[in-house]
Specification:
Layout lengths: L1 E5 L5 E3 L5 H7 L2 E5 L1 H4 L2 H12 L1
């Protein structure tokens, strides 16, 4: 199981992949996904973090 959240852009991201401040500002909804569902979320989360910095 992997904790994930939907950000303000509607993208699902892994919890813990972005700084706390960014998480608090962008989190709309939390979801616990099965491991198979969460595959592929991490690379996009890292890119978003880099783009917003």
């Amino acid at each position: 199981m992997s904790p994930t959240y939907e950000d303000r852009d509607g993208d699902w991201m892994l919890v813990g992949d972005v700084p706390w401040e960014m998480f608090v500002e962008s989190c709309k909804r939390l979801r616990i996904m099965k491991g198979k569902e969460a595959i592929g979320l991490a690379p996009r989360a890292v890119e978003k973090c880099k783009n917003r910095s």
